[in-house]
């Protein structure tokens, strides 16, 4: 029987959820895992501040509690990893946050990690998390696109800014692996990697890859 993974977009943007769903197609090829992507309708239009991140914890808990019997793992698809530890408290099943998984994956691909945020005001929040993970020494730099979530739907403008920022991370800050710091950038990963010539990590894909490994190996957290 196929394993089922639920990918939750904690903002209310269906466009972001559609992008996540497309990015998961490669994982569905063998038919051994079923991946559903859903939008948290109670979420803000974009998670761009700490208040936005904090506001989705309770609705996330409700959603996971409701869906828990039907799924084998959960992925919280926001680079702030909102509610990650709270959700882990209500289920023994794997719960993966895309920031945590994206950064851990980047550690295996390069020595100096460059992160692309969507907004300058996101960076302080991300740096606190990076510090809590003990990874500050591996960060080359984090730079913003200065584009909000809604603006990311303009694919060509977004890609142009991604190339500019990624090149600055590579050339000025010596980053040898890039992490996309927003789930709304998922569709740009392969094209950006081909353009700039260093590995580019989409954290949502990284988290789903880890979730698949967890359910296939039947790894659960210690109580």
Could you please describe the fold and organization of this structure?
This protein is α/β, with parallel strands linked by helices and 223 residues long. It has two domains: 3-97 and 205-217, Rossmann fold, CATH 3.40.50.12500; 100-203, Rossmann fold (3-Layer(aba) Sandwich), CATH 3.40.50.12500. Helices cover 43% and strands 17% of the residues. Helix 3 (57-67) runs parallel beside helix 4 and helix 5 crosses helix 9 (203-217). The model has no long low-confidence stretch (mean pLDDT 94).
Main attributes?
single chain; 223 residues; alpha/beta; Rossmann fold; 2 domains; four-stranded parallel beta sheet; 9 helices; 43% helix; globular
Number of helices: 9
The H/E string reads: EHEHHEHEHEHEHEHEH
* Residues in helix, %: 40-55%
What is the β-strand count?
8
Give the CATH architecture of the largest domain: 3-Layer(aba) Sandwich
Low-confidence stretches: none
The average pLDDT score comes to: 94
Summarize the structure.
The chain has helices at residues 14-23, 50-55, 57-67, 84-90, 98-107, 120-132, 155-171, 189-196, 203-217, and strands spanning 3-9, 33-39, 73-76, 95-97, 113-117, 139-144, 177-180, 200-201. With 223 residues, it is of the alpha/beta class.
